[in-house]
From TrEMBL:
This is Amidohydrolase family protein. The keyword ATP-binding does not apply. One of its GO terms (molecular function) is hydrolase activity, acting on carbon-nitrogen (but not peptide) bonds. SUPFAM superfamilies: Composite domain of metallo-dependent hydrolases, Metallo-dependent hydrolases. It comes from Amycolatopsis mongoliensis.
């Protein structure tokens, strides 16, 4: 494999190159592949690694929404995102969607971004608001009425205007599982106005029987700028509707099995 200016220029068994001008790396016994991409990772929660290994999904929600999440300092967030990014790089993940949903203040947000920048990983930073906005989700009807901070999202878009930079901006929205539809519509309209992708959790085991895709279809909200996380409880028909509208899905099989989301989705 030939790399020129940090770009893979050629792959083959007998590449011609002027050895005097090249650095040769002996990779015998190694598998050389491009960096992997993790499409769903909460980087700042690296600080809690192992703490919730026996939690159910609802126990996680109670702990994060009501107890742990609101007590993170900006310094905690910087450290979590830096360590989380370095941990990803160490395991061969060079690109990540950071599902960041504990931005208590603008200072917390800036600390999270700077943690990613300091590690040098390629990331889409998913602005997800504050854990305090999730507290309503702990009691019936288990949906939040809190809107995303539009001014903060606009500030971040000004900071990251490019969609091809090392760090880009996305929206980590609560979606219809965890928000009333008026909030869903407003949040997604904001993201689409700014031209950023939308990533949500949908079809999780904590809400069996709750309509997932149909309300979005009926509201005309489906599009190819959406990624739905987990999708465990979605039917094949719902998955087909997603595919027909260009919606992508991301799954986290180990976490989903451990926390009781439901069986991980698989192609077919």
């Amino acid at each position: 494999m030939l790399i020129e200016d940090d770009v893979i220029a050629a792959i083959g068994p007998e590449l011609t190159v002027a050895e005097a001008a090249a650095e040769v790396i002996d990779a015998s016994g190694y598998i050389v592949i491009p960096g992997m991409i993790d499409t769903h990772r909460h980087l700042y929660q690296n600080l809690l690694r192992g703490l919730g290994s026996d939690w159910s999904l609802f126990q996680y929600c109670v702990a994060m929404f009501g107890t742990l999440g609101p007590n993170f300092t900006a310094e905690d967030m910087h450290l979590g995102n830096r360590l989380g990014s370095l941990d990803a790089l160490d395991s061969g993940v060079t690109g990540v969607f950071d599902w960041s949903h504990n931005q208590l203040t603008p200072a917390h947000t800036d600390a999270l971004v700077e943690g990613i920048e300091s590690a040098g990983i390629r990331a889409q930073f998913g602005y997800g608001g504050s854990m305090k906005q999730y507290v309503e989700c702990l009691a019936p009807p288990f949906r939040s009425t809190a809107h995303t901070d539009a001014a903060e999202v606009r500030r971040l878009r000004d900071r990251f205007p490019s969609d091809t930079g090392l760090i880009t901006l996305g929206l980590a929205a609560r979606g219809p599982d965890l928000s009333v539809m008026d909030v869903v519509k407003a949040d997604w309209a904001l993201a689409r106005e700014l031209g950023i992708r939308i990533n949500i959790h949908l079809g999780q085991g904590i809400f069996p029987g709750r309509p997932a895709v149909a309300p979005l279809l009926d509201a005309g909200l489906l599009g190819n700028d959406l990624t739905f996380g987990h999708c465990n409880l979605l039917t094949d028909e719902e998955m087909k509707v997603m595919a027909d509208h260009g919606v992508t899905a991301t799954v986290t099989p180990e976490d989903e099995a451990n926390m009781g989301h439901g069986f991980p989705r698989s192609p077919g």
